[in-house]
Structures are given as structure tokens and as C-alpha cells.
Specification:
Layout: E1 11-17, E2 23-28, E3 34-37, E4 43-49, H1 57-60, H2 70-84, H3 91-96
Length: 98
């Protein structure tokens, strides 16, 4: 292997799939803030991913819809529509009109 071809930040990183719970130890230059222990007892930087080969439908053969980005927007639209609804007229007014 040639010397000095990798960047200085190149190191082993744990990529943790939040959907399937699987983890992979791969060489990378990605910047991370968290660390965790791997199966060999050593501590490595950790980077969380939403989807990997362990959870992607192409590799698993199972169709699955993953919507992590749209949940907040859906909640905001529901909350906004709940505030807009006016109160209905009371039933006493309906009875006197008869």
C-alpha cells in the first residue's frame, strides 16, 4: 500500500443504522462528535444513518416507507388546522328557531 495517500482525518468509524439497529465499522473521514465501543472493545467515532444496506428495500426485499423528514411538517399542519376551526352554534339556538 502506498504511503501518505489517505487524508490525515482517515480513521475507522462506526456507521449505525437507526432503522435496523445494525452497525458497520468502515474507514472514513466524516466528522463526528459521538463515540462508542465496537465488538473488539476499542472506542471509535459513531455516525448515525437513516438507511443502509441492512434496511434498504433493495437489499432486504421488503417494501417499507420511511418518512423521518415529513413528521414535523405533518404535525405543524395538524396543529395549525386545529386552531382555525370555529366553534359551532349552541343547540339551544337551534331549538328556539324551530
Amino acid at each position: 500500500m502506498k504511503k501518505d495517500i489517505h487524508p490525515k482525518e482517515y480513521r475507522q468509524v462506526i456507521f449505525s443504522d437507526s432503522t435496523s439497529g445494525k452497525s458497520f465499522l468502515i474507514g472514513s473521514t466524516i466528522k463526528t462528535t459521538k463515540t462508542a465501543k465496537w465488538e473488539d472493545g476499542k472506542e471509535y467515532p459513531v455516525f448515525n444513518v437513516e438507511i443502509s444496506s441492512a434496511s434498504h428495500p433493495f437489499y432486504t426485499g421488503q417494501s417499507k416507507t420511511i418518512d423521518t423528514a415529513g413528521r414535523v411538517e405533518k404535525f405543524k399542519t395538524r396543529a395549525a388546522s386545529a386552531k382555525v376551526k370555529p366553534k359551532k352554534a349552541s343547540s339551544k339556538k337551534a331549538e328556539t328557531a324551530k
